[in-house]
Design brief:
8 strands; alpha+beta; Nuclear Transport Factor 2, Chain: A; eight-stranded antiparallel β-sheet
């Protein structure tokens, strides 16, 4: 009996000791993750906020550019497009001193402009990426605008998002920030997890417990809702900054966004009958007759070839598809074909990186979700920073008074009612004054018409 009691008491003490050890380990783990989350927020949290805000704006970059530059929207659709050769002739006439390859990008909509890209203009030659963008009306072949990348609002914002306006150094910082953002999101999820029993309380938002409590609850809720999107954006953003990581992993090359694959050169003898743009496009459509034309790049020098980018049905990339056909300018023969349908699993995964990061692959609703996810980073940074300042005693908590909003809503309703009442009174006044005048005018006009008709009939009888 005594021996049994001894064993039971020993087992209980051992269990208590193990429980204390587990609790200590949990406390240490939570403290460690809390420190990681805090250090990342204070050190690179502002960069996260900038990348999130600029990225969300870039989701609608084309729409914003059209809004800021209405001259780049075709007012009237005028039948079919002009030929590629005629459009390229207009571009070269507007820029006769720019030698080398040009890339014609097809419009994304019926009212969109065709864009001619010149990669290395002398004005921005030493910048990391600052091509010349020439907008051409595809229906008239008229050059509408010539702009340099980075000197428009939308391209400047995109450069801020991709390289923080610091060229290659900023490009690397953005890439590593993607890795740190994944760590920050994972640490936030670990700190949020309350256990199965307390999951209900962790999802509550307390509106009457002060501003700091409300900000903290919103911080946790918005972080939870946007975690999956932020992890995906961070991973794809890291790949876009360092594309060689996945390329080396899957044994592929030339798969980065904007890359054109390996260099293809002409082996034919130059002659007096080079293949023109329209003919090169026609030849390139041979292997893919149902594909959509997206881009055509002109040859660079006598050894250059045409590079024709097509989009097959089902390709996830809209603007930069991987279907490519190289056509020799002198012989008119196809030199090489790149078909995404023949890609392996690793290469197919790489093709998803850009359209996933931009939301292009997710449709209208997906792009809007990506916009909200980018904005959430800004809110998470501000709310977390304010809470940290409160814990340091720099700012004080205050009550949240939603009655102010309710009073504002009541005043807004009263103002709207008074405005509608004033409009109604004005309409009644106009009806009272204008209706008799209109009746008199109608009567006078009817008299004139009657007299005119009588005079006309009398003249006819004579």
């Amino acid at each position: 009996m005594v021996l049994g009691i001894f064993f039971v008491s020993t087992a209980i003490r051992l269990l208590q000791h193990c429980t204390r050890q587990i609790q200590v380990k949990k406390w240490l783990a939570r403290t460690a993750w809390l420190n990681v989350h805090l250090i990342l927020a204070l050190s690179v949290g502002f960069i996260f906020a900038v990348l999130g805000f600029t990225g969300s704006v870039c989701v609608y970059r084309e729409e914003l550019d059209a809004l800021l530059n209405p001259q780049l929207v075709v007012e009237e659709v005028q039948g079919d497009y002009q030929s590629l050769d005629q459009i390229m002739a207009s571009v070269r006439a507007a820029h006769p001193d720019r030698y080398g390859e040009w890339t014609l990008e097809m419009p994304r909509s019926a009212k969109g402009m065709m864009t001619a890209w010149f990669d290395k203009p002398r004005e921005t030659f030493f910048e990391r990426y600052a091509p010349l963008m020439v907008s051409v009306n595809p229906y008239t072949a008229e050059v509408v605008a010539s702009r340099f990348w980075g000197q428009t609002v939308t391209t400047w914002i995109l450069d801020l998002h991709t390289q923080l306006q610091f060229d290659q150094a900023g490009w690397n910082v953005v890439g590593y920030s993607g890795l740190l953002l994944m760590v920050s999101v994972c640490s936030g999820l670990y700190l949020w997890w309350p256990g199965v029993k307390n999951i209900h309380s962790a999802l509550r938002i307390r509106f009457s417990s002060g501003l700091m409590r409300l900000l903290f609850d919103l911080h946790r809720m918005i972080g939870l809702l946007s975690a999956a999107a932020l992890l995906l954006l961070a991973f794809t953003g890291f790949h876009l900054s360092f594309p060689s990581v996945l390329e080396n992993l899957f044994g592929s090359t030339g798969m980065a966004h904007g890359e054109t694959g390996r260099v293809i050169t002409s082996t034919a003898i130059p002659n007096d009958h080079p293949t023109l743009l329209e003919a090169a496009e026609f030849v390139a459509r041979g292997p893919f007759p149902k594909a959509e034309l997206r881009r055509v790049t002109t040859p660079d020098g006598n050894s250059g070839v045409y590079r024709v980018n097509l989009r097959q049905k089902g390709e996830v990339n809209q603007r930069h598809p991987y279907t490519t056909v190289w056509v020799d300018r002198w012989s008119g023969h196809i030199k090489e074909v790149r078909n995404p349908a023949a890609f392996g699993k690793g290469e197919t995964l790489i093709t998803w990186m850009w359209p996933l990061h931009t939301g292009e692959a997710l449709g209208v609703y997906g792009r809007f979700c990506w916009f909200l996810a980018g904005q959430s980073l800004l809110f998470l940074y501000i709310s977390g920073f304010v809470r940290w300042l409160h814990r340091k005693g720099r700012i004080r908590d205050r009550a949240v008074n939603f009655m102010v909003l309710r009073d504002f809503k009541v005043r807004l309703k009263k103002s709207a009612y008074q405005l509608l009442l004033s409009i109604d009174q004005l309409m009644n006044l106009l009806a009272q004054k204008a209706l008799p005048f209109m009746i008199r005018m109608v009567a006078i006009l009817s008299k004139w018409l009657a007299r005119g008709s009588e005079y006309y009939l009398s003249r006819v009888k004579r």
